[in-house]
Specification:
Elements (H helix, E strand, L loop, with lengths): L4 H16 L5 H11 L2 H9 L3 E8 L2 E10 L12 E8 L8 H15 L4 E7 L3 H10 L3 E10 L2 E11 L7
Helix pairs in contact: 1-3
């Protein structure tokens, strides 16, 4: 996977900018990107033994990615074996083509294979498209919230959880 790091970083930058740039103060958003979307950061994340990146493609082109992490969870998750979907992005040209559903299925399959009983994620409270995807299509339920910093700007993310044993959806 380290060989894929530059391509992953490019996909991550593009999808993060597409999703959030127009909702944030440009200075704070750039500060956030400068802190989190660098090759050294991605290489460190790839090397983390308590995390895994999953990639999704469509016709051989990178279309989506997710970063899964385990070993720590917020207070509202009462399962020490929980797994977080820390990042979940689909490149805009692939929206509405089933790529997100396939990526989520990969995440659930990975969780089940590793015996994680609970899956959780954080989602920005105003990301209505993502919230609808997680709740209506997959059955995630809100269980708390936390502050997510975008540069110096505090935003609110909702914690959402799902029992990994639930049947798959779409």
């Amino acid at each position: 996977m380290p060989a894929d790091a530059p391509g992953l970083l490019e996909l991550a930058l593009r999808t993060t900018i597409e999703t959030f740039a127009h909702h944030n103060d440009p200075i704070n958003f750039q500060k956030y990107l400068d802190e989190t979307h660098r090759l050294d950061v991605f290489l460190k994340e790839i090397a983390d033994e308590n995390a895994r990146y999953l990639l999704g493609d469509r016709d051989g082109k990178p279309a989506a990615y997710a970063r899964l992490r385990w070993g720590r969870a917020p207070d509202c998750i009462d399962d020490p074996a929980a797994m977080e979907i820390e990042k979940f992005y689909v490149d805009k040209p692939f929206h509405g083509q089933g790529v997100a559903a396939a990526m989520m299925q990969q995440c659930l399959d990975f969780a089940r294979e590793r015996n994680h009983r609970t899956i959780f994620l954080g989602v920005w409270e105003h990301n209505y498209r993502a919230i609808a995807f997680y709740t209506k299509k997959w059955g995630f339920e809100r269980c708390g919230e936390h502050v997510f910093m975008v540069g110096d700007d505090p935003t609110i993310d909702w914690w959402m959880k799902l029992a990994a044993s639930r049947p798959s959806r779409p």
